[in-house]
Amino acid sequence: MNVDETVLPGLGVRKDFVTASGRRIGVVEMREGETELFVSTWDDPDTCQASIPLTADEASCLGNLLGGQHLAMSLAEAHKDVPGIATRQFSITADSPFNNEPMGKAQIRTRSGVSIVAIMREGEVVPSPAPDVVLHMGDLLVAVGTQKGLDSAAAILRNG
Amino acid sequence: MDPLALTLIELGAVVFCLGLLARLAGRIGMSPIPFYLVGGLAFGAGGFVNLDGMHEFAHLSGEIGVILLLLMLGLEYTAAELVNGLRRSWQAGVLDLVLNFAPGAGIALLLGWGVVGAIVMGGVTYISSSGIAAKVITDLGRIGNRETPVVLAILVFEDLTMAIYLPILTAILAGVGFLGGLQTVGIALAVVTLVLVVALKHGHRVSQAVHSENSEVFLLNVLGAALLVAGIASAMQVSAAVGAFMLGIAISGATAHTATRILEPLRDLFAALFFVAFGLNTDPSGIPPVLGWALLLAVLTAATKMLTGIWAAKRAGIAVPGRFRAGAALIARGEFSIVIAGLAVTSGAVPADLAALATAYVLLMAITGPLAARFVEPVVKAFRKSSRKPTPAEPRTSVEA
């Protein structure tokens, strides 16, 4: 992937690339710490169709969503020969009972038979997280299990 | 009435009115600068109310306002950004200087204001308002646009040019001869180069010297350093404002961000008082006779800025709509045009009409600049559509709501 970096004096740094469909998409990392997400219009790649200011939390959450999809797809690919096994992603919301708690407290594997194989956090992957990893708002848990198990894991993460 | 009480009442009333004006400007999404200028005109000599009590304070506050404006401008940039910008965009910068200095200088000569008046008015029409331009770019969601770096590079070049131009102007206004002028220019160039080199190599040390975790200590450090450097620069005839600008460039990194945050309210207050002080010194009855010239200058210099932007954006490989967007973003003139005119008027080396012309000109440009930036895109689009076949539909591969 060829990412262009352009310094915007007084504002920050723009990082963008052109997608296969011909759009320019990228972020401007503002000096004050916010991120501006933008995507160009299709008929004039110089201008932006949307330019969306994101806080640090929002930017890392979006990063998880984008990266998590890719991770989940490759996991699903790996499990496709095992019937009955599915992959799903769970995000930790602010009101989740396990926000700021170690993951082991939820006892997901014991109670639902589901394995948490990775956590996406601030655009980075934490593979095979140990039970003492503390969960935070915006974390994306990548889980593997049966459909039924995944449903009950979702309920555990939501309701405790 | 007790003179102190009178001064306090006048000052309070003026600042309160400025608050109302700034709120009005924010409500309709405009720069407050033209409103402050009109406020100053209304309060000053020949205006509706004549405020004599606060004259002295307004004058000193205005000077501090200029120092803070330039200090904060310097804080925006790091030395590396300036040097890189200069290297990449000096051609566009020179074209900008030639195209936009000429109309102001020409009209000053036509009006019989002599070489000094020409150099002042040239500066007034040359310098775009980086404050207004940056706000327009952010407000219109153009931060990610491809032409934005081109616009910013031109603004950077202009701001650096100010660092050379202001000392020259100060020397000329002080009436020093050719040799004295050369000496000042030499000092200015040496100081600018020295500061850039020091800032590139030892910027963190300058930052360390003023930095403090305690925001009160930090504020006093930065403000004290700025006034001190400005005063010394002024004593060396290099212009107080340039001293502050160079200090701002030398401070970098996290220290610069904190300084910006802490100084912002002070800058807003003193800069507002600066515009008022300028308006106070301008007789509003002088404006109608020069209004025609101001309009002519406005049209001319809007066109020359447009040309500058179009040329620079074309060189950077930007398509036609982007070229026009770049040109229009540069049209606004504001704070620095008034800084230049203010320097000239306080020195008394130029006719009073110049203040009136500069005021009328900046009023026009500060209002039309953001409007032009907003409406150039639909206008260009409509124009291109009517002269071309309809554009094909978007390729199916792309995802679109």
From TrEMBL, chain A:
One of its GO biological process terms is: potassium ion transport
Q: Which InterPro entries match?
A: AAE_transporter, KhtT, KhtT-like_N, RCK_C, RCK_C_sf
> What protein does this entry describe?
Potassium transporter TrkA
Q: Which PANTHER family match?
A: K(+)_H(+) ANTIPORTER SUBUNIT KHTT
Q: Name one Pfam family in it.
A: TrkA_C
Q: What are the residue boundaries of the RCK C-terminal domain, all occurrences included?
A: 75-159
Please name the taxonomic classification of the source.
Bacteria, Bacillati, Actinomycetota, Actinomycetes, Micrococcales
Molecular function, one GO term: monoatomic cation transmembrane transporter activity
UniProtKB/TrEMBL annotation, chain B:
UniProtKB keywords = Membrane, Transmembrane, Transmembrane helix, Transport
Question: Molecular function (GO) terms listed?
Answer: antiporter activity
**Per UniProt, what is the membrane topology?**
Multi-pass membrane protein
Please state where this protein is localized.
Membrane
Q: What is its main location?
A: membrane
> Could you tell me the superkingdom of the organism this chain comes from?
Bacteria
Keyword DNA repair on entry: no
| Keyword Electron transport attributed | no
Q: What is this protein called?
A: Cation:proton antiporter
Q: What is the lineage of its organism?
A: Bacteria, Bacillati, Actinomycetota, Actinomycetes, Micrococcales
